[in-house]
Amino acid sequence: MNNNNEKSKTGKIEKEILNKHELDSIITRITFQILEKCSNFENIALIGIKRRGAILADRINDKIKEHSGKKAPVGYLDITLYRDDLTEIADYPLLSGTEIDFRVKGKNIILIDDVIFTGRTVRSALDAIIDFGRPEKIILACLIDRGHRELPIQADFTGKYVPTSLDEKINVKLKELDKVDSVSIEKNEDGV
């Protein structure tokens, strides 16, 4: 086994695909893409999908300030009650709360998530945002696109496209939650 592969306690193989520096470079690139696309900076707001999308929204906003001298309003979205599989995930799903303390109506919203997969999380987020008002536009930024879309949803800004099989999982680890910045791909040792 090479250095990038690590066997987890559950018998799965994890291979790091992005280290701390690569992750930071991708966040910087997404930030510059947002700054290029959003010429009217006064009208944008960032909304991160909890949990890791919310952390990424804060990091992108810090980089926006670093490179433009301005900060955008940031909101955090819990999409749990908007999921189309709510009755399948748990009898009593845990809610982490939505925090949007700015007016959504008429804003250019940058919706941020860590991984886009089937598109269902993003669809849920769109429904939740619309309940706050009708934005001028919603732009989607995702750190990782792993394919396998079930809905016609594409990110406007993607950090890295990582083709996966359905039995693989992308693990985004951020220091604020996981004490390390890393992205890895996980699969069972036997390929199942």
TrEMBL record:
MF annotations from Gene Ontology: uracil phosphoribosyltransferase activity
Pfam family, any one: Pribosyltran
EC main group: transferase
Motif (PRPP-binding): 109-121
InterPro entries named among the record's database cross-references: PRTase-like, PRTase_dom, PyrR, PyrR_bifunctional
Keyword annotations of the record: Glycosyltransferase, Transcription, Transcription regulation, Transferase
SUPFAM superfamilies: PRTase-like (SSF53271)
UniProt cross-references to Gene3D superfamilies, sorted A to Z: 3.40.50.2020
EC number: 2.4.2.9
Role description: Regulates the transcription of the pyrimidine nucleotide (pyr) operon in response to exogenous pyrimidines.
Protein name: Bifunctional protein PyrR
